[in-house]
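Support case: user asked for a sample of complex input and structure output to validate their parser. Sending the pair below.
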Amino acid sequence: MADYAHPDVLVSTDWVNQNRGDTDNIRIVESNEDVLLYKQGHIPGAVEIDWINDLNHPVVRDYIEGQDFANLCSRHGIGNDTTVVFYGDKNNWWACYAFWIFLLNGHDVSKLKIMNGGSAKWKADGKPVTSDVPSYGEKPYTPGEKNPAIRAFIEDALEQSKAGKPLVDVRSPAEFSGERTHMPEYPQEGVLRGGHIPGAVNCPWARAVAEDGTFKSREELEAIYQGELGLKPGDDVVAYCRIGERSSHTWFVLTYLLGYDNVRNYDGSWTEYGNKVGVPIEKTYEPA
Amino acid sequence: MSDSLTDIIEAFQSVDAETRLMLLLDYAKNLPALPDRLSAARDEGLGRIEECMTPVFLFCEGENGHVRLFADVAEEAPTVKGFVSILVNAYDGADKPTIATIPDDLLQQLGLDGAIRMNRVVGLNAVLSRIKREAAAV
């Protein structure tokens, strides 16, 4: 892990196992797609933060912020100076999403970590799991300064497209080409039109992950993002997918593992852009 | 609908959302393992329900006018496993006409439509229609 641009942002499963007892300073947070996984078994001492029930705003298509975010942290015993270590299912896809929302809400970036390899590696290592739900006393949490520089809105994506600046579409090739408007398993989050934002390049998010669920080496990642896609560390990059979760994984890879300092996640993503009135799309799929 | 499914729906509806998830998890844990001959079939890729993101394998077999249901679902997808387990629990050994009456809105009737993420609903409904289709054909 040492070769990455910001290696401190990753911790290993061994580190978590050795440090998980330090609950005064460290909170382990599991974030998953499947709502039963945490209940089935998690790292002893870990709490669960769920992308729909906890992080999505109940009414507005947005994330919780300000006092609501502070209350969420507070009730999990997370203070402003608590180190928060995220992990979860599907190669840390949802863990990276939660990480991004914590940073968006101004949690100190030096206190945000991802456990490399996620749940899959922890279990493959044979490390302990429990279904016991811990309870920590409430900790005071003062809402932090928001961090808008890591988020792109549709106007930003359009501007990016018009200016010919890098847009990385991290969906599957069939979604990118317009053959499908959704992953085959996810039709409910579909959209009216298939295709991509004009000028975007396609690089499915999971290409950044090795077989054991950990991130690929810096060299391998550079071969993909620099070699194949032609991105450079100083580039102004916007990443998107369908609802902004897969692209938060790519945002994490570019920002922390490769050291790009100007990457934004467009969380409105294709479910907003593909349905938007009056914006152009690009479609490369042609029915045979 | 079978009597046992009616009982299961009643049990799910009589508890709060959190307890309902624990009930679903209990079903996930209690899905019987595949018999060896079907494990071998699964390992050859038979019985896979393609609409489901996580591997779900389903086998329907006729036995003296009744239908036997066998299924296997990955540990990493307990919501899917729980739902499949409910169907197996309620309908393994039922006759064909009874299986044909499984309600298509079972997820809603169980009160799970809010808990199961939209992105899983289609896969679960695919499991349901596959059971009905295959059972009718055995």
